[in-house]
Amino acid sequence: xxxxxxxxxxxxxxxxxxxxxxxxxxxxxxxxxxxxxxxxxxxxxxxxxxxxxxxxxxxxxxxxxxxxxxxxxxxxxxxxxxxxxxxxxxxxxxxxxxxxxxxxxxxxxxxxxxxxxxxxxxxxxxxxxxxxxxxxxxxxxxxxxxxxxxxxxxxxxxxxxxxxxxxxxxxxxxxxxxxxxxxxxxxxxxxxxxxxxxxxxxxxxxxxxxxxxxxxxxxxxxxxxxxxxxxxxxxxxxxxxxxxxxxxxxxxxxxxxxxxxxxxxxxxxxxxxxxxxxxxxxxxxxxxxxxxxxxxxxxxxxxxxxxxxxxxxxxxxxxxxxxxxxxxxxxxxxxxxxxxxxxxxxxxxxxxxxxxxxxxxxxxxxxxxxxxxxxxxxxxxxxxxxxxxxxxxxxxxxxxxxxxxxxxxxxxxxxxxxxxxxxxxxxxxxxxxxxx
Length: 436
Prior knowledge:
Helix content: 25-40%
Number of domains: 2
Number of helices: 14
Strand order of the largest sheet: 7-6-8-10-1-11-17-16-12-13
Distance between the termini: 24 Å
Number of strands: 17
CATH topology of the largest domain: Peroxisomal Thiolase, Chain A, domain 1
Strand content: 15-25%
Shape: globular
CATH architecture of the largest domain: 3-Layer(aba) Sandwich
Radius of gyration: 21 Å
Structural class: alpha/beta
Mean pLDDT: 94
CATH superfamily of the largest domain: Thiolase/Chalcone synthase
């Protein structure tokens, strides 16, 4: 039997290049603060890079999320990011959690039955940092080899490598940490991973499988030698040819030429049944009305030029939610800053919505965090509904289309909105949010 309750967003957490506290991040974006820095100098030892800039994470303090030294030894960075963003999401939703195992630093969420509480996360690469570290240790176990290549490595192979590198570790560890006994799912659709995971949580609550979910995406894409960065750089997908860091990240601008690589991040939402959120007097940020996904069936690395499957996805999502094209006032776009993607995306938006909706790209401020990006953008869209504020576009001087791009923060009530993601492989996902 399907649950007839509306599904609402009551909290969110974000960790990204602008910091690790969602309200501060939101205020920085509204003020137009963006992050872009030169790549680490030591990386040049191993390769000549076309792209010279990235969006690194600032130093993280995981102790504020209850993570200690032993956790850091047992968890890949992507898992710590997921727990940190989840901790924030629970706090902003005013969901209390009490200790159930002090020694293991585990909790139980109050107000909810554990088996009705689900975890739905997405990641493009999982614990790739642990994979690279373990592989380096395995190969360079001879001191002579280390001196030959001047590469530091762990002298002891990590006995916990499997539990740290497996893609489901972030979701599983978060479920264990907060005593969520409901479905625990991991989705991997590259850049659409976080959006797809939120969509799956939405569908699970809609079916009546669960009452509440922590849902989102997380990624950590850095290593001491720049090899992960290189894998994207060699494809020509990253921003290049700019001498100034502040100028290189420019979605939808005529001078864009690639996306700004983000070191990592996490975005997590709290999704609830409306009736339960109201029963506990929760502050409701927005309603999550719909989710759809399609597949291009075209190419592993490039978007299908006509955008037909994306159009199909948007049309179906609008119809299923009972809206019309003219109802939409805001689109948080995929907006990577790559030449073809931006062109195709704006063609689609203009053909469906015309020039009415405001369009921006959160990636223009924090870089592209792959599997985390869609979830961070969904959280930003929810904040827009909560505060009736839409953030500006960064570095948009010469737009490639005459559309409704905010060049500074705009205060206005928002009607239905779309947050959408497209991914390597040909995966397309979109969420529809509305004012509550």
